Structure formats: structure tokens, C-alpha cells
Amino acid sequence: MVIAVFLAVYAFFSATFDIFKTVGDWIITIRPDDAAACVIMVAFNGLSIYFLTEYCTSYAYKHVCELADSFKTGAATNMIYRIALCYKSVITPLLVLARIIYGSSAICDMYGFSLTEIGFLYNLATGLTIDVYGPVCDNDGGIAERVELCNYVCKNIDALDTAGSTTTTIGKGYAIGSVALVSLAHFSASVKRILTLLGG
Fold it and tell me: Which of 71, 122, 134, 146 has its CA 20 to 30 A from that of 100?
């Protein structure tokens, strides 16, 4: 994808072009390398959101195992631990999104938000595929239970269902990050339009 981005920006972008900042009268000169940097930056940071979401939701890591163990001491401790885990799990993705927003705005101002959204859309097919895996596995588990298949089959389907829940959560985390950048792009377009109408 990195190679495709560089080929695309050098094929479709001019050597340099100027844009006005969203707020103020300053002009920014953008090169193809700047546009490629915004797209590639969000591609790798979006990948880190995948891994961070998996780390907080997969049974292969300690957080989910500790959450399961908290059931042994009652519902109250489980709810407290679950809320604490939720608060903890959003810190790092928020820092990743903040880094994307700051980096893209520093390079290309608000135009960078549109470019970062392209970086998210590059991984859209993978994200949707991962997202749909969970419901498919869940439906398989329900079918296996209703037709009363043997324990061996149900045990394997339960393992797939657990993995499916994790992949569904990963897809949701990726979608939320993408929507956050889309909202910023719409916000910047609205600010620019209002300033234009006001003559600013």
C-alpha cells in the first residue's frame, strides 16, 4: 500500500500546490511527499488500533483472563473490574488518534484530515471482513447447539466464537477511529464554509 500511495501522489498531484489554512490568511505549500506522509501515517497508526483492540479483548491476553476470574468473587467485583478495564482500554487508542490528528494538521492543516481518511479507507476491506467474521461464528454456534452436534464440534465452534467476538470488537474499534477523522474533516469543511460566507 505504501508503494501504491507514492505512485498515486506523484501521478495525480502537481509538484507543489498552495492551500489556505482553514483559519487565517496563511498559505501552505503542499508537496506530494506531504500528502503521502498523511496517508501512510494513518495506515500504520490504524494498524496499531487493531493490535491494541485485540490486546484488550482477546482471551489470549491477561486482561480478559483477569476479567473472567473476577466472576469468581461476585457480580460487583466483575462490574468494577470491567469498568476499570474499559477506561484503561481507551487511553492508548485516544493517544493514537491524537497523534494522527496532530501530525496530519501539522503537515497539511485540515486538508490532512481528508488524506488520513483515505488511509483508513485503504484498510476498509480488511476491517469489514474482520467485523463480519464474528456474527458468522456466532450463528454457527447457535446452529450446532440446536441440532445437538457432538461435544467435539461444539467445543471447536466455541473457540471460533470466542475469536469471532474479538474480531468483531477489532472491526468496531477501527470503525470508530475512522468516524472520528471523518467528523473532523466535516467540521473543517463547515468552518471553512462559514468563514467564506462571512467574508473571512
Answer: 134
Domain count, the chain: 1
Q: What is the pLDDT of residues 115-133, one digit of tens each?
A: 887 777 777 777 677 777 7
Percentage helix, strand, coil, to 5, in the chain? Answer: 80, 5, 15
Amino acid making up residue 75: A
Are 139 and 161 in contact by the 8 Å Cβ rule? The answer is no
Tell me the three cell numbers of residue 124. 476498509
Q: pLDDT at residue 65 above 70? A: yes
Q: Which domain holds residue 62?
A: 33-197
Beta carbons within 10 angstroms of residue 89's beta carbon:
17
- How many distinct helices (H) and strands (E) make up the chain? 8, 2
